[in-house]
User: What shape does this take?
Amino acid sequence: MHLPSPDALLYALIVVSAVLIATIVIRPSITVSREGKILAFTAFLILPVLCTCWGASEHIERSKRTQFCLTCHVMEPYGLSLNVDDPAYVPAAHFQNHRIPVDEACYTCHTDYALYGGVLAKMRGLRHIYVQYLGTIPHPIKLYTPYNNRECLHCHLGARSFESNPIHMAMLDSLKSNATSCVSSGCHDTVHNVENLSHVKFWSPAK
Amino acid sequence: MSTEAIGIQRGLRLSGTLLTLGLVVELISLLWGKPLAFLLFAFIGGTLFLAGILVYLYSLVSAGG
Assistant: This one.
């Protein structure tokens, strides 16, 4: 049996709620009876709260998607850099080898793996929107704060491939404290490098 | 019809209109799928939703009093 998608259920719920509310607005006399009062309470309070909470959750989930981030024109080269055919490009190697969820590539590496990290990521998202539409987009784009090793270690710490490298283990404390940066201390410093995209080959996944 | 009932019905009409507009805005924002859609949902849809709920609750409380 083919089940409707959650999106379709949400749209249907919004439409049903709006129709119920409109019915009561057109014929408010139906709320005189006890059943009518229950119907009004459901239509005016329970259903809109449900629709709004579900809608907010849906918006938050959508904002994690790679395609969502790449809808802004300024992010296009960063999206392209995920398909560079060179394993030295850290984001490309992660994206192409599915070390991160492909559908949430930007969010996975650019959220904070700390208390309220998701909330802070959303606040940064609002700031991005402000800069995109009302501010001046810096050139080149830079992170608001230096990239925190915590985001790398969230996945790599404890992984065999990471721990079997003696260099990683020798400098583990320094990595954990951010005294040495994974991406800007000369080890994994080829990140998006969008200014060099015209000189690189691109990998295209099989359809 | 009593004055109280007329007052409730007026509150229901206003609240219902605000809530319906809020739901329509929320639906449009969900179908749009651009970063601005979230702002449309949160600020315009959210404001209409909150106003509609508050008017409905006020009409209930004022009818009860």
About this structure: Chain B has one domain: 3-64.
